Amino acid sequence: MVKLEPIETQERLYVRVARRIAGLVSSGEVSTGDKLPSERDLAEMLQVSRPSIREAMIALEVSGVIEVRTGSGIYVADQSRQLSAVAADEGIGPFEILEMRLLIEPETCALAAERISDDQLEQLRKIHNEMGRTSGTSEVEAFDSQFHNLIAEATENTAIARTVSWLWVLRDQSELSRGFHRLIIKEGVYPVLDEHTEIFKALENRNPDEARKAMREHLEAATASAAQHFLS
């Protein structure tokens, strides 16, 4: 059983975790084809959060050091591969972005339910319809972004609207986030239409409590769905 010492510093934590594991691979302590400990066990060994382990696994997987076999586990893919420049990426990881969105967007949606105009509601209806038309395909991604950004704009708060927009930009700027997004898209993980339907209904009814709840449940489900990539 692989043994790892706890990570002591919080600075660029996922990078330190990734380098620690990559070091085990390059030193030969673990070999090509070997199965690594589970996400939960790695988090306990290193005394870091499971999201930090996920970000590290993304860096290692995108670099070709490991292979994540959903439903089976995490395996060493190639001992000769080195941790790529993705580990030095100054962008933000996908689970960090989701965590931030979970803090901001439920309250954003509640405020939008109080302030959304009839015209904005009609625009949102059209975007939702397009999400339905393109559901289960890569085309739905663009409409997903439009849906969330329009809700932020409906708050009539420029700071909120720009923050939500910035979080979507971060997803595309970060090599780490882009790499992971490509992986889960290949697995058929797309925005779920039913969850967006509940958000739209709450906004249509101008119900802040229901809007907050629907957005929170959507983002929690999105996080859980993305995390399935690492579960054995």
Compact summary:
The protein is mainly alpha-helical and 232 residues long.
Strand content: under 5%
Query: What is the topology, as strand order, of the major beta sheet?
Result: 1-2
Using only C-alpha atoms, the radius of gyration works out to 20 Å
CATH topology of the largest domain: Four Helix Bundle (Hemerythrin (Met), subunit A)
In CATH, the homologous superfamily of the largest domain goes by the name GntR ligand-binding domain-like
What is the number of independent domains? 2
Mean pLDDT score, rounded?
A: 86
Low-confidence stretches: none
Coarse structural class? mainly alpha
The dominant shape is: elongated
The proportion of residues forming helix, as a percent range, comes to 55-70%
Number of strands: 2
The largest sheet, given as strand count, sense and whether it forms a barrel, is:
2 strands, antiparallel
CATH architecture label name of the largest domain: Up-down Bundle
Mind explaining what this structure looks like?
It is a single chain. The chain folds into two domains: 13-88, Orthogonal Bundle (Arc Repressor Mutant, subunit A), CATH 1.10.10.10; 94-230, Four Helix Bundle (Hemerythrin (Met), subunit A) (Up-down Bundle), CATH 1.20.120.530. The chain is 64% helix and 3% strand. The protein has helices spanning 13-26, 39-46, 50-63, 94-115, 118-134, 140-153, 158-173, 175-186, 193-204, 208-227, and strands at 66-69, 73-76. Strand 1 and strand 2 form a beta hairpin. It starts with 12 loop residues before the first helix and ends in a 5-residue tail after the last helix.
